[in-house]
Amino acid sequence: MEYTDALGTVHRPAADARIVSLVPSITEMLCDFGLAGQLVGRTGFCIHPSELVASIPKVGGTKDVNIDKIRKLAPTHLVVNIDENEQPTVAQLAEFIPHIVVTHPLAPRDNLALAELLGGVFCRSREAAAWSADFEREYACLQALQAQSPGPARTMLYCIWQDPWMSVSRETYIARMLAEIGWQVPQLGAARYPEFSWTPELLAQIDGVLLSSEPYRFSAAHAAVLAQQIGKPVQLVDGEMLSWYGSRALQGLRYLQELAGASGR
């Protein structure tokens, strides 16, 4: 069997792979597939499942990677993501890591292909198939709920940073998660993660604001202050539930149901 990644690179199964993962959500999925013992490196942001990743060496962040430390770990495989990891860094690592597995989920159902890729390359196809069956059940539940009781379509500004303020485009995984419950994000330009200002024109476009708990640590206090400033509903949301593909997508689908219900479906 062969498996093709997001860049079209073909990979063969590698039962004895030594893996470095630079993607927190994928580190979690690899652990859930029973591969924690083959993970020789992870980022400091790879925090789930905590009891398993604690013993895996840290190699920096998703972007500020310690190249020399990774070299000493002698990995055979590196798992990266197009959005989260920088191409020049990956190119440096490719000089001594034989196999680079590139991922790029853009919509909830892309998790099925992601599971098949990781399960296939790392010889955990049975675990991947079981996970995919669970995902299909959760997705069907969400779809049925939407069909039975659709909520109003809304335009919600999803904020990931301040100073400068930054949001997400409609082409991102986050936006396509929100679209599952009929919420769309405003298009703020060509960038995938655009900067923006709180102009009257922007406020006229949106029904409310979602402040993500990551990567910027927005809090309920931020939400309260911003709501008073802009005169729009502002809600703090769990960024892991809406942006982490992989294992956490199962919880993310359930979280979408909760969001839709809390908003007065």
Structure description:
- With 265 residues, this protein is an alpha/beta fold.
- It has helices at residues 24-32, 50-53, 67-73, 87-93, 110-121, 125-148, 173-179, 200-205, 220-230, 239-243, 248-262, and strands spanning 3-4, 10-11, 19-21, 39-42, 77-81, 99-103, 154-159, 183-184, 208-212, 234-237.
- It folds into two domains: 3-126, 3-Layer(aba) Sandwich (Rossmann fold); 138-262, Rossmann fold (3-Layer(aba) Sandwich).
- Helices cover 40% and strands 14% of the residues.
- Strands 4-3-5-6 form a four-stranded parallel β-sheet, covered by helices on one side. It has a four-stranded parallel β-sheet with strand order 8-7-9-10, sandwiched between helices. A two-stranded antiparallel ribbon has the order 1-2.
- It is globular.
- The mean pLDDT is 96.
Large-scale geometry:
globular
Alpha plus pi helix count: 11
Number of strands: 10
Into how many domains do the coordinates divide? 2
Order of helices and strands: EEEHEHHEHEHHEHEHEHEHH
Helix content: 40-55%
Radius of gyration: 19 Å
Strand order within the widest sheet?
Answer: 4-3-5-6
List low-confidence stretches: none
Beta-strand content estimate: 5-15%
**Major sheet:** 4 strands, parallel
For CATH, the homologous superfamily of the largest domain is named as Nitrogenase molybdenum iron protein domain
What is the level-2 CATH architecture name of the largest domain? 3-Layer(aba) Sandwich
Topology:
Blueprint lengths: L2 E2 L5 E2 L7 E3 L2 H9 L6 E4 L7 H4 L13 H7 L3 E5 L5 H7 L5 E5 L6 H12 L3 H24 L5 E6 L13 H7 L3 E2 L15 H6 L2 E5 L7 H11 L3 E4 L1 H5 L4 H15 L3
Parallel strand pairs: 3-4, 3-5, 5-6, 7-8, 7-9, 9-10
Antiparallel strand pairs: 1-2
